[in-house]
Amino acid sequence: MKVGGILFVALGAFMLVAGITYGVWGYERSGTFFLCVLGVAFMYLAHTLLHAARDEPRETEDERAAAPAGDGGHGPQALSREALEPVPVTAHASAPALTPLLFALAGGLIASGLVFTRWLVIAGALVLASVAIAWLLETAPRRAGHGAEQDDHANQHEEAPAGH
Fold it and tell me: Left, alpha or beta for 27 (phi > 0: left; psi -120 to 50: alpha)?
């Protein structure tokens, strides 16, 4: 996190210098304002990351693996192959889909339409609406299953004995 904080300090300083330079020679208030706001935002992120780095434990996983075992210091702690295997994520993983790409394309059409012609805005809005409907239909079974799981969980708490 410390490296990220340092990078954001550099980016923030660059954006502030660019904003001030642009304001002096560009005579445009909006560009100057946005560059300076971006610089301040980068500085805020740097501040947050550097404070998080201060609270982060100094020991890395490699150092923990090489540390003496707790049973009298008989050498480095051995990691099993199972501990290094990736754990599959099944609870919140989504199936591969084209909807995120289509949402981005619709946003691009709308943004282009704001610059060039309103027909692109209309086309982008139609694509956005159709992709949103497709996404809702695509995720309906999973959302219904998630709601049923929550209902089952709530029913288990209601059926618990009064002594708990």
Answer: left
